[in-house]
Amino acid sequence: MSEIQNGQCGLCTHFGEEEMPSEKLITIRSSHQAPENLVETCGHPKLVALHLMVTPISGCSGFQAAA
Ligand code: SF4
């Protein structure tokens, strides 16, 4: 498991925004941990058309903390 720091994709509202089941997202956000091989789409409006794939420990300046 990877430890997710503030500002990283796993804690961003756009991580797996359109595809990942919300139950899995909630577990990742509450535990700040995710499987090391997890790769999900980024749903940021500026990136979604590119179908960018990110890991929970990736990041960018478009980070928005998940509620
Ligand atoms: S790439 Fe940026 S906008 Fe997309 S999930 Fe990661 S931090 Fe959020």
Walk me through what this model shows.
- The chain is low in regular secondary structure and 67 residues long.
- It has one domain (2-54).
- It has one helix and four strands, in the order E-H-E-E-E.
- Residues 9, 12, 14-15, 42, 44, 47, 54, 58-60, 62-63 line the site of iron/sulfur cluster.
Shape: globular
Approximate helicity band: 10-25%
Look at the structure and give the mean pLDDT: 95
Uncertain residue segments:
none
SS field, number of helical segments: 1
Structural class: little secondary structure
Order of helices and strands: EHEEE
Q: Can you tell me the number of structural domains?
A: 1
The percentage of residues in β strands lies in 5-15%
Number of strands: 4
Main β-sheet, spatial strand arrangement: 1-2
Radius of gyration: 10 Å
* Terminal CA distance: 22 Å
Keywords:
single chain; 67 residues; little secondary structure; two-stranded antiparallel ribbon; 1 helix; binds iron/sulfur cluster
